[in-house]
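Reference record:
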Amino acid sequence: MRVIALEDHLSMTMNGLKAERTSWWPHWSELAQYIIPRRFRQLVSPNNYNRGQAMNQFILDSTGTIAARTLAAGMMSGITSPSRPWFHLSIEGFDLEDNNPTTLWLSEVERRMNRVFQESNFYNACAIMWGDLGVFGTSVVLVNEDYQDVIHCTNYTCGEYYLALSDRNVVDTVYREFTMTAKAVVQWFGYENCSQTIQNAVDTGGNALLQEFLINHAIEPNIGRHEGLKVPKIFPYREVYWEDIGSGKPGKVLRQTGLHEFNCLTPRWDVTSNDAYGRSPAMDALPDIKQLQQETKRKGQAIDKMVTPPVVADVQLKNQPTSLLPGGVTYVAGINNVGVKPIYTVVPPIQELKEDIGEIQQRIRTIFYNDLFLMISQLDTVRTATEIDSRRAEQLVMLGPVLERSNNEALSPAIERTFNIMNRAKLLPEPPKEIQGRSIKVDFTSMLADAQNAVATAAIERTLALAGNLVAIQPDIMDNINTDEAIQDYGRRLRIDPKLIRSDEDIAKLRAAKAKAQAEQQAVEAAPDLAGAGKTLSETQVGGGMNALQYAMGGGTIQ
């Protein structure tokens, strides 16, 4: 078996991924030109000083851009909102209904993980991720360990990454090319690990520190034998950085690291067969967006011709001062048949153009699901909360497949990666012994799940309300309902903190204490009656110098 050098393996794999991605490049380029130009790298090249130039010259009507922004904001607030919990942990095959140590441990783990997400840049990365997903159909987010914030996320820009699938059609290989300044390369990888070219730039100092170099980055399964590979086989994945010296030649390896788990989130909106890259709503909306730009341009030209039409002028006015301003005066010798007139009269159907443009804009918003996320603000009349919930649940069905794919390809890996990083850093509490070796399950509280749970909680509320109304007619009607179980199920569906609901054991102790206190109170209240009865017996004479109380205590029988 021939063993090739690690640098050759990386270079050949990169070239193969580039060739496979070529067919996607023109489509991505058009999506960027008409929607979000700044989120696409046309060419990853060092020392490109034209990055700040205007890139939105293809956009005359920004409806597509705004619609994509609304979709991203809606996905962000509905799936990974920083203001409310969006995931819940449970144990496979373990009863978590009671307020037991396992439930409390899971609750504490959730609290600590939420704090990590809040204090890191995770939510900033999610906002960009949802935007890329809606426009390009694919998004890549790198989740690295960070000594300061536990995790640190980096969004890859469309055009700088390359993907490949595993045997299960899941992304397990990510290659990337990007630029870094000489100073940044040395800070990140160390002076001794860099090539002589980068070292010379750093030694020169000054402006040379800002000279950019092309860096390649690979994340892939740790398989195969390669000369120079130093990552132990115990790691399922490896991460390698190396310099790109151009002409398809491999450069110096800067760093190679073993990974305990795949450290990239790679959600795709929708996929066809074994495509590595996804398809998006923006791809469906692109023809409408291009038509909108064309009609907007034509409408502007029509209005421009109405305001400043092309004119024909008498030859006597040639080289003569002429004023077409309001109130302006032009002097000529004789005014018969002398003047300036429009070549033709332009009366464009402005109203029809506006209506057609409005229809196109609405189609674009619909394709981007804006009618779902802006449903309440777009209602023309006041509706009940029940009707709004029903409408939202009905429309969310359309996003069901996207939510499931996002959960599997982005959110579950993000939670698993963060949990493992925190566990290795000893940032999680010690788990109870009874759950050692069990798997942790992740449940997502997305808008769709909330809509489904809202239906179930509404049914519980209506049942309890009906029983409460019938108590006046049939007092024992509540015997039909297990109110303890109803409250626990209601709390689970609303995913409230388990600390707020007492366990069955605590409830039994509390009720036993209440029963004991009630019995003691009844005994205290009965004491005056017993004392009065004793006094009456003591005052009743039964003969023989004895009263009734003495006689009863002596075991006698009163005749």
About this structure: The two ends are 117 Å apart (CA to CA). Residues 504-538 form the longest helix (35 residues). The chain is about 45% helix and 15% strand.
